[in-house]
Amino acid sequence: MGTDVQWLYRLTGKDWAVVSDRATLESCECSTCGHAVVAISDGNCAGSPDLDTCAGRWHESLSPNATHSLSTNPAIAVSGCSAACCDIDCGAHGTLGDGVTTHCTCTCSGGYSGHFCQLAPSYIVSGATPSRFNGQYDQLQASQCNGNAVYQLGGEGGYVLYQPAGMGGLWAVGESAMATSCGTVAALVRYCSALSPDDSSCGAWSVACSTDPYGWCDDDSVVVTRG
Questions:
Q1: In a shared domain, residues 96 and 187
Q2: β strands within 93-212, DSSP E
Q3: What is the pTM of this model?
Q4: In the chain, at which end, N or C, are there fewer CB atoms within 10 A of the end residue's CB?
Q5: CB under 8 Å to 211, separation ≥6 — which residues?
């Protein structure tokens, strides 16, 4: 399993799941998670996920975008942590609560946001074809998709950089309407979980094209940096 931002939560029934999709986490009625699943327990896994009843019952997703591509992985284990707030790292732009007088959450500064203050106030897209997607995308204060910030190019009506709802770890560039609908109609996409879209662990950007049977072609010339 990777080190991207993920959530462990209880499914309907006796199973636990690790998901990379914020919308799935916030769905109280979720019984199946589709492509958002990173790992899922199988069978009688009642109670806390670190109990012996869950040992050896974990299945890992073979692909972050596959709906039913799970493989048994006996090496996956869940354990509790004794350190205060489990040593959560808020990075250089956040302060962690102490878990006693305050919650174990990150308080961000300098315009940064995200669960671990990993999202910058702005990003610059360059190298994209068509060139109209290039430029500085600034954070919109009133919009979020998948629990993360939305960024817009050139003010009202411009393209937006965002995470489509229900699509696991995709970052995308799409029309301005996506800032509120968080839909999947995009021109550029990149698998990056909930990390910053400029993170070195992210996959290549893909651009909508007609030459690929799935409609997407990798474009290594597209680069995203912090503004």
A1: no
A2: 94-96, 106-108, 122-126, 135-145, 148-153, 160-162, 170-174, 186-191, 206-208
A3: 0.70
A4: N
A5: 217
CA distance 136 to 166: 26
Q: Are residues 195 and 220 in the same domain?
A: yes
Residues 220 and 207 in one domain: yes
Give the tens place of pLDDT for each residue, 84-116. Answer: 777 788 999 999 987 677 778 899 999 999 888
Pinpoint the alpha helices (H) of 62-213.
178-181
User: pLDDT tens across 214-225, in order?
Assistant: 888 999 999 999
Pairing of strands 135-145, 122-126: antiparallel
Name the amino acid, one letter, at 1: M
- Give the structural domain span for 207: 122-226
Q: Does residue 77 lie in a domain region? A: no
Tell me if 91 sits within 8 A of 118, measured CB to CB. yes
Separation of alpha carbons 184 and 98, rounded Å: 38
